[in-house]
Amino acid sequence: MNKLVLLALILFINGNVFAQSEVSAKKPNIIYIYADDMGYGETGPYGQKLIKTPNLDKMAREGMKFTQHYTSTPVCAPARCMLMTGKHGGHSYIRGNYEMGGFSDDKEGGQMPLPEGIFTIPAMLKSVGYTTGMSGKWGLGMHNSTGSPNKQGFDYAYGLLDQKQAHNFYPTHLWENGKWDTLSNHYFDSHKRLDSARATDEDFASFIGKDYAATKMTEKALKFIENNKKKPFFLYLPYTIPHVGLQVPSEELTQYIGKFPGEKPYYGQNGYNPSKYPLSTYAAMITYLDKQIGLVMEKVKALGLDDNTIIMFSSDNGATFNGGVQAKYFNSVAGLRGLKMDLFEGGIREPFIARWPGKIPANTSSDLISAQFDMMATFAAISGAKTNNTDGISLLPTLLGKPNMQRQREYLYFEYPEKGGQVAIRMGDWKGVRINVRKDINAPWMIFNLKTDMGETTDLAAQHPELIAKFNAIMKKEHQISHINEWEFLESKMPKKGAGADAN
Hints:
Elements: H1 3-22, E1 29-35, H2 54-61, E2 64-70, H3 76-85, E3 99-101, E4 108-111, H4 121-126, E5 131-137, E6 156-160, E7 173-176, E8 179-182, H5 201-205, H6 213-227, E9 233-238, H7 250-253, H8 278-302, E10 309-315, H9 327-330, H10 345-348, E11 349-355, E12 364-366, E13 370-371, H11 375-383, H12 396-399, E14 412-416, E15 422-427, E16 430-434, E17 446-449, H13 465-478
Parallel strand pairs: 1-9, 1-10, 2-12, 2-13, 5-6, 5-9
Antiparallel strand pairs: 2-11, 3-4, 6-7, 7-8, 10-11, 14-15, 15-16, 16-17
Helix pairs in contact: 6-8
């Protein structure tokens, strides 16, 4: 065996053994909080100046902030699938938003469900004694499908099963362990437009209900923590904030009204519900999400679980471009190129903060190149569970402040079949991107040096044919043909099946 390879193997094995030995014999609780469509720069720890996030600021001061962390793909359902199954976009069962049914209550059909027998994070953690719960947006199958969260490893599941229902923060119902939970909200069309010449305050107010979905999700999450305080638990909290529509409780909105000069109403012309104060509402939504995170942290501390609970925060993809959101105004992606649905940095580089008192060094940051499909391997290392052929690596050595013990990867691979078909590879400081591959199977690589050009403005492909050759070889190695024809854009395709895709 090559000596360098042997040395790397020894360091990898020793690093994992060391990291696991650092973890308490008492299995730690794991809480993973997932924002929806939050840009890299929309919180205080990542440079946001206009939106207040005091609890995430506190989490970062008391924990570790990652600066080169990626989602697995730039839209909702597949990002959640890859997080839950530890697979990248070339291997994942779900790779796009495959919509079923419609927006109204009587047409609620969800998205393509996870199949029976797939290996998930909650199932893995259950195997080593964890009680598992989720409260939030699922998007991987309805209650009567193989993808139901209760059939995919969760002992308790509350929230939205169909992500189309998440376009409205005042839905008529949520789901609790497969049963309809009625809320005190009337039904309305969450994509209705208003006439700008005739819209009244009453018209805008008609898009506000009584029971705010995110509030209900927090209430159920806090109850789950209380009920399981004496045994190890895993809590997945995929909130729907700040995904549009632009809606927030009125009492939370007032703190921002008047803060943004020139703010004008949004009448629904770019989809989703109208808002009289779109900038103020968007800021208030993010601050309200931060408030929910604070409640979770306070609950853990009040129960005396602080030192044995790791809390993590990230988002499923970059900031959106529709529904009245003004990403440029808030510098939502911190100067990066692209937004949601893009494999440029703005669509996939995400905040990632982890806090674990006494274990994760406080007020630290890491530039480790990592991805959300690393969570399965990381949680396995934390809990003592065994993974099942994951594409990820454990981040535990880095989290424990031992980066010299951290296994390094050669590259990260991304592919996304929608918005023309895209591929991206991150290898060290280099990033390769291909777009519109569905239209042109020979679409060229764009190559960027992220160390000197994080905004991906200067294409260096002509100067680096050797990187193009490497990226082509990686793409060929990592891509597996999808079971859905419309998700296949890198290989010869059979006649298309019908698959509805949108920007959920």
